[in-house]
Amino acid sequence: MGDNNVFEFRKSEPRWINFENHTGEKGKGGMENNGGKGHPCEIFNASEEKVLCDFSGEGIIRRIWITLSDRSTEVLKNVYIKMFWDNSDEPTVNVPIGDFFCMGLGETRAFENHFFTTGEGKSFVCTIPMPFRKNAKIMLCNYSDLRISHLFYDINLTLEDLSRDAMYFCADFHEVLENELEKDIKILDYKGSAGRFLGTSIAVIPNDERYHNLWWGEGEVKIYIDGDTDYPTMAGTGAEDYVGAAWGLGEFHNDCNGCVMRKGNAVSMYRFHVRDEIYFKNDIRVELQALGGGPYDILKDAIAENAPLTPAYYGANGVLNLIYKKEFDGELSGWVNFFRQDHYRTVAYYYTSK
Fold first, then answer.
1. Among candidate residues 165, 183, 212, the one where a domain is terminated
2. What's the rounded mean pLDDT across residues 154-162?
C-alpha cells in the first residue's frame, strides 16, 4: 500500500501484541494495573525461550519493535529471533538478533533503511510485512549465559484477508568462520517453490594480519535462479559495488543499500531489492566470492609467508591479465585480485509460496 491511498478505508483491524496485551485480544490491553502501566517488560533469563506472539487468525505482521537492557556482543550474537507461520513445527526465521537487524559485527549503531531502523542504537525495529493465514508465532531464545533484566517489545499486525499470491517471510543465517579457499560464501540456497529474494545483510571480519590489511571486497555477488548450474544469470562486479558504494567502503545508510558499521576493515553492510525485484519460479542460490585485492608489492609478503591465497588476475591501468585456472608461470605485477579466507556472517531475507 502506498501513500497515494492512505485516505481510503480498508477492511483491516489493527492489533498490538506486547506484555500489556499478550494475546492481542480486542479490549484486553493494559488490564493488569487497573488501566495503569502494569506490565511493560519482563526479565529474560539465560537459556529461556520467550514467546512474544502466538496469534491465530489471518493477517500481516506490520512492525516489530524490541529493546533489551543488555545489548552486548554476547547478547547480539546469542539471542535468536524465531518465526513460525501457520502452526509450522520448524521456524522460517532463526537468526541472531544483531544479524537479523543488520548489525552483524556484534555492536549496535544508529541507522535507518527501508526495512530496519534503530534511532539511537538502543532498539530493534523491523517493518518487513509478514503474512500469515492461520497463525503467527514469534519468539526470542536466549542462548547466552546472561540474565537480561529488561525485555520490552511490541508487535503490530493487521487482521485482513490475504490474496492467493501472498507469500511467507523467511530469513536464513549462515556463519563461516573461515571459508574454504576459492569457495564462494553461501547467502541463500533454496529450492522447491516460487518466491522472492528480498535482500541480504552481510558482515565480514577479514583476516588482516594474514593478508597485511589488503582489501577483502573484490568478490562478486552471484545469483543463480531456476536451473542455473555452473554459471549464474546475475553476477555483480564487487562486494562494495553490490551495496551501492565504490572504491572501498565506508559507513553510510541509504534506503535500500548501505554499510551500517565499519570497524577497522570489518564491515556490516546490506542491500534490499525493493525497486529491482528478484523473483524465482522454483529455486535460487545467492553467493559471494571470497576475493580480495591489492598491490603486488604488499601481496608478495603474504605469499612469502605462505598465506592461503590464489591469484585470479593482475594488471594496471585497466588492462587485466586473467590467470585463474590457467597455466601461468610469469611474474605478478600491479594490482592483484586473489582468493582468500575470512570470517563471514550472512542473513538472507526472502519470501516463498509455501
1. 165
2. 98
